[in-house]
Specification:
Keywords: Membrane, Transmembrane, Transmembrane helix. The chain is mostly helical and 190 residues long. The protein contains 7 helices and no strands.
């Protein structure tokens, strides 16, 4: 039986590695899910938009309820207004998923473009501290933002689903790579 001392903190690096088969299974499931998502990216884009809408509605409702539970804490009006704003945003997303997907994609394109420019500037200003990595990341962000924005509004119907599919596949590949790391197998089998 293992006992844990509650006075010491355990870092992530000291946690045991998951078993090999779990890493492989998770990797394969993620890759399979990514392939399914890429099979119909327009449908996944709409489903993602509706899901984000429902999450916003639920979060907004909890924000309003929380405002009434903690009335004495201050900021009651701001909490209620924020909750109503979340719910209104969610209702728009759920009620108009196609238009909402376009809006979310446009915002994603703008965020990628702006954050890419910021990362380029950071990479240049920190060139001696491996700034080239940040510069490459910024160039990728700017290019991704430009691809989304120059193809808008057509990109709005496929970008969110495509990004989700690619993310799932890369996540799965990451888990498979982790499973086959020599240090992981010896650590998890011990």
């Amino acid at each position: 039986m293992t006992t844990y001392d509650s006075s010491s903190r355990m870092g992530v690096g000291s946690l045991p590695a998951p078993p090999f088969w779990i890493c492989v299974l998770l990797g394969l499931v993620m890759i399979g899910a990514g392939i399914l998502v890429l099979g119909d990216i327009m449908l996944v884009t709409l489903i993602s938009t509706v899901f984000i809408g429902w999450v916003a509605i639920i979060a907004g409702a909890f924000e309003v309820i929380h405002a009434f539970w903690t009335k004495g804490w201050g900021g009651f009006v701001w909490q209620v207004l924020l909750g109503i704003l979340y719910m209104a945003f969610g209702i728009v997303l759920v009620g108009q998923p196609v238009a909402s997907a376009l809006i979310l994609t446009y915002i994603l394109g703008m965020v990628l473009l702006i954050s890419g420019f910021v990362r380029i500037l950071l990479g240049i200003s920190h060139w001696r501290q491996a700034g080239w990595i940040m510069l490459l990341s910024g160039i990728f962000g700017v290019l991704a933002g430009l691809v989304i924005l120059t193809g808008f509004p057509m990109t709005g119907l496929w970008v969110l689903g495509f990004v989700l599919g690619v993310d799932l596949i890369s996540h799965g590949i990451g888990w498979l790579a982790y499973a086959w790391l020599p240090t992981t197998r010896t650590a998890s089998s011990a």
